[in-house]
Amino acid sequence: MTFAATVLTLYPAMFPGPLGTALAGRALGTQWTLDPVDIRDSATDRHRSVDDTPAGGGPGMVMRADVLARAIDTCGGTGPRLLMSPRGRPFDQGLARTLASGPGVTIVCGRFEGVDERVIERRGLTEVSIGDYILSGGEIGAMAVLDAIVRLLPGVMGNAASADEESFADGLLEHPQYTRPAQWEDAPIPEVLMSGDHGKIAAWRRAARLRLTAARRPDLFERRTPGEPAK
Ligand code: SAH
Q1: Claim to verify: residue 207 and residue 118 sit in the same structural domain
Q2: Whole-angstrom Cα distance, residue 171 to residue 185?
Q3: Which atom of ligand 1 is nearest to the CA of 109?
Q4: R_g over Cα of the chain
Q5: Whose CA is nearest to atom 12 of ligand 1?
Q6: Model pLDDT for residues 40-74, shown as the tens digit of each residue
Q7: Number of domains in the chain
Q8: 187 and 146, same domain (yes or no)
């Protein structure tokens, strides 16, 4: 099954951009498709305007409900409808997994001061944020969301097991990684990793993940999969 991504944007030329290279790029056209839709094509006036001044006054411009709704209604997109928005639900690995298990996603990229509230309500857009900072538009956020989804699609990642072990898979950050040379500057690879004792290695990694998560992300540590003693 091919995952169908539709992105509504004022800058369709930004796509596929980085999603056309490496892992996501190799899977593009087979495991997933990407359809960038120019919101401006849904404008009807002579100037093809997509925005107007905010009702009630204030700086900047707001994307028009009528133009955006027409773009949504005619884009042919499937799956949940997301709106990239700093007010949204924080995007996380759980949401990436949920979306990756569906038929596709339709992502609206805001610009200017944002979009008319009525189109969010009437078209059932789920607002999704990629972090507590303000970007100039939703496109880079949409790319982050799509990248996280695409690598989870069946057949995209070479080693499927690696998805189960990496950060967030069980609510913990990843353990430190090492590779050859075994001795670099005055730093050896930790001895246990060279021991060949798989039980000891698993225990060392588990302890490292707990220690790192407790130190760096106490919020994640509190919510970790229950049954693990604090180290
Ligand atoms: N005035 C708005 C910010 C608008 S930024 C506010 O204060 O909330 C313009 C567009 O960029 C937004 O409509 C949204 O689509 C996108 N954007 C900006 N920051 C984002 C973030 N952290 N996550 C997701 N999308 C973001």
Answers
A1: no
A2: 34
A3: 15
A4: 22
A5: 110
A6: 999 999 999 999 999 999 999 999 999 999 999 99
A7: 2
A8: no
